[in-house]
Amino acid sequence: MNNGGRKRPPPPPQPSPANPPKHQAASQEDEFVDEDVFLDETLLPEDEDSLILRDLDKRHALASRLSRWARPPLSDDYASASRNVVFQQLEIDYVIGESHRELLPNSLGPAAIIRIFGVTREGHSVCCNVHGFEPYFYISCPPGMGPDDISHFHQILERRMREMNRNSKVPKFIRRIEMVQKRSIMYYQQQNSHPFLKIVVALPTMVASCREKDASFLIYLSLTIALRYSELISHTPEAEFSKMAPFRILSFDIECAGRKGHFPEPGHDPVIQVANLVTLQGESQPFIRNVMTLKSCAPIVGVDVMSFDTEREVLLAWRDFINKVDPDIIIGYNICKFDTPYLIERAETLGISEFPILGRIRNSRVRVKDTTFSSRQYGTRESKEVTIEGRVQFDLLQAMQRDYKLSSYSLNSVSAHFLSEQKEDVHHSIISDLQNGNAETRRRLAVYCLKDAYLPQRLLDKLMYIYNYVEMARVTGVPISFLLSRGQSIKVLSQLLRKAKQKNLVIPNAKQAGSEQGTYEGATVLEAKAGFYEKPIATLDFASLYPSIMMAYNLCYCTLVTPEDVRKLNLPLECVNKTPSGETFVKSSLQKGILPEILEELLAARKRAKADLKEAKDPLEKAVLDGRQLALKISANSVYGFTGATVAQLPCLEISSSVTSYGRQMIEHTKKLVEDKFTTLGGYEHNAEVCI
DNA sequence: CACTGTCCCTAC
DNA sequence: TAAGGTAGGGACAGTG
């Protein structure tokens, strides 16, 4: 048994025997009315089965509830592996052609990408992508391999998998598994009495041995897989397979006792409280509420208060809690930049080496990495990256900053904006005083800490983040974490890879050395006619102009014909389109482009979102759905942007400049059409004029 | 003051 | 290392 699975001590003892239970109950009732604003009916449990832990006995209810929800430990079969994880789904995207240097560091030739999606430990359970774990496993093979070699490569891959599998001590107990493919998020339907699909991952030694044995087949991260991917049956996320998985969502918040006038630093300032709420996706109430405090804390209605004498105990209690509850998704406010790194760095300071075992890979330590993200769309943001294998971290602050333009992103103002609820800020200057007071002042602090854990969960539900992000992840085929931590281009690339694989195409590494191609001509903007118009003006608008152009004219990497090919191939005129910018593309009758297909899918998804929008009644729900369809629109537009991004993975200015040239042409044409038709000569009242 | 370049923002 | 695009307006600073 590893540390991560170590049993948490049985229900902690009542923290403060000095307070007789009766007195507690009385004071609780009093305070509940005027002080515990957040403990209103929205948070209080409704049924008997829920946790109302007014006395010691009820603590056992928590313990049993917790163990009921705790997932079974890994089988002993896995004990021999130094690191392992159980995945729900394996998918192998095997060839992307010449390697992308970014995606495949250190590899030169055509490459395979194995993507692994999903994690589970119990059959009916659900999972998300292998977040945190590198979502791509890189395998490279000798340079010079082309599309014709795909099947050969396939076989090599398969053989290698088998070999590795033989080497491992893991028995094969899965014969047939039906998988639900949702790309990023999946619902696993148990077809088999045995719950496990097993994949043992990343035995570091195997990397070395593979290199020695077969230099032409480098494996950067080794895998041992218990079933062959050909045995997987994947379903598109439709009908019953489009259901949302009941993720287990942990929302947490920490409080630190900072020194006066200083922002808390993990090198100096202790973690004094950690509040946790655990909710099943789709349910309105958390099924676990607790708070871990340093020093005693008076009881709180509906909350399991666990008090400890040392900070070390607090941290370890939290680690054990995480491992026991085994959440799929971890949320909070600014957790990525503050809470999570703070806990880890604090544990480092205190020398608690066994603390950062929080993920689903046994004995894998969580590390903190500094990252910066900068793009024109989202601006530059510095952040810390903490990978917790197998758990999605969803920072509501990040999501807010990406999705909404607000004047302030404090939890307080965001909650006020979306939930009409304030957070009753405890000013940071009095946190230390509250901590140094008595059990009652620490209780007050705990209530606020809990509220700070509660608000992100409310935001998550209210803004339908799980639904919207899962939708986006499904459509684009990237893990959810990418949606928060990366830009638009990875989404386009991911869709390209998916489509290319379907069609047995390889994507070249187009990023040439010194790609100095400059910029290209953009859209026409007609001159506006300024003035105050009393009568309404008719507006003309193209529906998704650029995507429509790409679809209509079949513009794609794989339909572009170079000038020399035009000469060589002597293509009949009726098979090609010549764009206003002078490029040639074959028509879809000859070969349908990948990009148009991707766009069709995106626009179909957008259509679905718009249909939902029509159904929606609640204004906020409407706003959220509107945001979703807008996000899909932006994704569709970024397909065009992707081709014009000269610093991206696969620039193709022939496509982007063709799109804009068609766009200009169409706008001119429309203007002419309208102005020619609606004239006084044609019997209309006025001459029409088309401007901005 | 006229003009230019930069930054920042928004529209599409 | 990763990063959708171009067009265009307004505020502001610097310069002759």
TrEMBL record:
Coiled coil: none annotated. It catalyses: DNA(n) + a 2'-deoxyribonucleoside 5'-triphosphate = DNA(n+1) + diphosphate. Residues 223-414 form the DNA-directed DNA polymerase family B exonuclease domain. The keyword Nucleotidyltransferase applies. It comes from the Eukaryota. GO terms for cellular component: delta DNA polymerase complex. GO terms for biological process: base-excision repair, gap-filling; DNA replication proofreading; nucleotide-excision repair, DNA gap filling. Residues 10-20 have a biased composition (Pro residues). Its EC number is 2.7.7.7. Residues 132-207 form the DNA polymerase delta/zeta catalytic subunit N-terminal domain. It is found in: Nucleus. Residues 1-31 are annotated as: Disordered. Residues 478-681 form the DNA-directed DNA polymerase family B multifunctional domain. InterPro entries: DNA-dir_DNA_pol_B, DNA-dir_DNA_pol_B_exonuc, DNA-dir_DNA_pol_B_multi_dom, DNA/RNA_pol_sf, DNA_pol_palm_dom_sf, DNA_pol_type-B, DPOD/Z_N, RNaseH-like_sf. GO terms for molecular function: 3'-5'-DNA exonuclease activity; DNA binding; DNA-directed DNA polymerase activity; metal ion binding; nucleotide binding. Gene3D superfamilies: DNA Polymerase, chain B, domain 1, Helix hairpin bin, Palm domain of DNA polymerase, Ribonuclease H-like superfamily/Ribonuclease H. Keywords: DNA replication, DNA-binding, DNA-directed DNA polymerase, Exonuclease, Hydrolase, Metal-binding, Nuclease, Nucleotidyltransferase, Nucleus, Transferase. Belongs to the DNA polymerase type-B family. This is DNA polymerase delta catalytic subunit.
